[in-house]
Amino acid sequence: MSLPLIQQYLPGYPAHVQAQVAQLHAQGQLGQYFRQRYPQPNTIQSDKALYDFCNGLRQRYLKNAPLLDKVYFDSQLTIERQTLGLNTAISRVQGGKLKAKKEIRISSFFKTTPAEFLTMIVVHELAHLKERDHDKAFYQLCLHMEPDYMQYEFDCRLYLLSLILNKTQVGLLT
Ligand SMILES: [Zn+2]
């Protein structure tokens, strides 16, 4: 049964939404849903392009957020580890002063997803530069940067879930 997995990947979403997803999956229609809705593949493939994309959004929407020292794709962040984006402030001594280096790491997984999902994860990690918790202020900031943020987050969870369900079918996951 795939419903426990659906509950795990879509926590907090209403039962009727979860049931609808289970039905789409059972009918083999999840793949089609994504191809129709998100036909545009992500073109950002290098760390440089990722940095420029992140920094562009930061400059446009988060004027007084700290500067980003480093932004890169990280192949260590995987679905299996349940971490697809990270933001860190690493304190380093520089010129006798303690300086926090801001880093954003995005899972290499997003190189192969629709463009909108990369935007979603980047917006998410950028919002954490100002808001630590996943509270109302955090989501308001996400929506400020990307008005379709909630839809993208939901669909990205659904996309992950469909990949896991497909793997389960061919026996890669038990
Ligand atoms: Zn977060």
UniProtKB/TrEMBL annotation:
Gene3D superfamilies referenced in this protein's UniProt entry, alphabetically: Metalloproteases ('zincins'), catalytic domain
Residues covered by the YgjP-like metallopeptidase domain: 96-152
Domain of life assignment: Bacteria
InterPro entries: UTP_pyrophosphatase-like, YgjP-like_metallopeptidase
PANTHER family, A to Z: UNCHARACTERIZED PROTEIN YGJP, UTP PYROPHOSPHATASE
Protein name: YgjP-like metallopeptidase domain-containing protein
Organism whose genome encodes this protein: Methylophilus rhizosphaerae
